[in-house]
Write a structure and sequence with these properties.
Rossmann fold, 9-stranded mixed sheet, two-stranded antiparallel ribbon, alpha/beta
Length: 266
Amino acid sequence: MRVIVLVKQVPDMERVKFDTEKGVIDRKSAGTEINPFDLNALETALQIGEKTNSEIIVLSMGPHSAEQSIRDAIARGAHKGILLNDKKFGGSDVKATSVTICAGIKKIGNFDLIIAGMQSVDGDTGQVGAEIAQILKIPHISFVEKLNEFDCNSLTVTSNIWEGIYLKKVKLPALITVTKDINIPRLPSFKNKMLARKAEVTVWGYDDLEEHLEESQLGFKGSPTKVKKIVIPKTAHREGKMWREDYSHAVDNLIEVFKCRKILEV
């Protein structure tokens, strides 16, 4: 089997800043890491690979710094890493991103399974996986939280969607997106980290993918959606009141609060 894992380098969302005027994330304002959900996707692929002797290929689209995330994935057990990098890819929305990644998948060639995280923590759209499956015309299952059975021909999984639990079976080739509940990602050993530093990461630009892409599909030109405004919500703080003498007034106030919150029936 050949399993392709989609990985995205994302900023540390606890420290990153936003450019509210341009409507973008200031990615230089914080450190980077592998999208947490993608680590669950990688672990799922590794568990399948251990029982089916599969080749695990990590595919990412991003700046040159994303090579570090690919090397991290190799240190955790992936066999090969490919980065899609070109200035023409910059500014891509979910559609342009999906089209570009599909071009990379087509260049890789035959595959049996594509696994992605359910969403990225910097965008939270959860759309790229499904769009890739649609473009490639393969079946897909989203929000997989348990891998029940698998072989070289099919997968049986548990999917959690809209408060419903579904048992689904899909024939390969297919695509799945996974949640954080599917597993606990393994940590790389120090030895594997050192080996991954020397691993070769293949980099493909537009010229390498031109057979499967049109320039009009890329970046800002190929992105039908635009972020017009970013609003950062104010941090909510707990409110408190204190009554020291007029306890009957305090009781009346509490009753009104409980009625408003529907804790007490009016």
